[in-house]
What does this fold into?
Amino acid sequence: MTRSQVRLRLALAWWRQLGYTLAPLLLLNVLFGAGQQTGVMTMPLFIAGLASMFVSLPLFGAYKRALVATEKALDTEAEPAAWLELARCRRLAFLGAGLPAWVAAVAVLGGLEAIPLMLLALSSVVLLCLYRIPRQLG
It folds into this structure.
């Protein structure tokens, strides 16, 4: 597989993960969002969503190390293994980046209002943007 094909697959995986991250929030908001009263769990759920962003810190460090290793392995026989390791680290990091939006999806059932829901969803999108493959790599 060529480098451009690998980059294309990784780019498509990023877009797919963006959909997987935001779909539960959108679906639950459409189904259960209208007419919800604010409950006692809204603030704890919002704080849990914010705290879930910290799960990404060690995952981002591992992704960064894999990114540097992949850059060093370009045009060597270790390049395919480096791309595979980068994809593995990135898949784990995607799960951590999606947590705020997934907590927001649960918070819809608790009656969390639109602005905090959007903030949690936006934080997941920003975290996912950290895991795009840079142009310099390839």
Remarks:
- Residues 3-129 form one domain.
- The helical segments are 3-32, 42-51, 56-73, 79-110, 114-129.
